[in-house]
Amino acid sequence: MPDSLIELIWDCTEFDRFSRPNSNEVLNRIQNIREITGNKKIVNEKKR
């Protein structure tokens, strides 16, 4: 999977999480993507 596609998926899930923070479906999707991508952007999470 190309990095640019991973970035795009992350951008979409980040937007969904802040738009609908109570959606378990979105949170589960984010977790699945983190597992698939090996937590590439975990650094950004620590900044918040």
How would you describe this structure to a colleague?
The protein has three helices and no strands. It has helices at 3-19, 24-37, 42-47. Helix 1 runs antiparallel to helix 2. It is flat, with a radius of gyration of 10 Å. The relative contact order is 0.16. The model has no long low-confidence stretch (mean pLDDT 65).
Shape: flat
* Low-confidence sequence ranges: none
Largest sheet: none
Class of secondary structure makeup: mainly alpha
| Radius of gyration based on Cα positions | 10 Å
Count of separate DSSP helical elements: 3
Counting structural domains, the number is 1
Total strand segments: 0
In terms of quaternary structure, the protein is single chain
Q: State which percent range the strand residues make up.
A: under 5%
- What's the SSE pattern? HHH
State the separation between the terminal residues, measured CA to CA: 27 Å
pLDDT averaged over residues: 65
Query: How helical, in percent, are the residues?
Result: over 70%
Care to give the gist of this entry?
This protein is an all-alpha fold and 48 residues long. Helix content is 77%, strand content 0%.
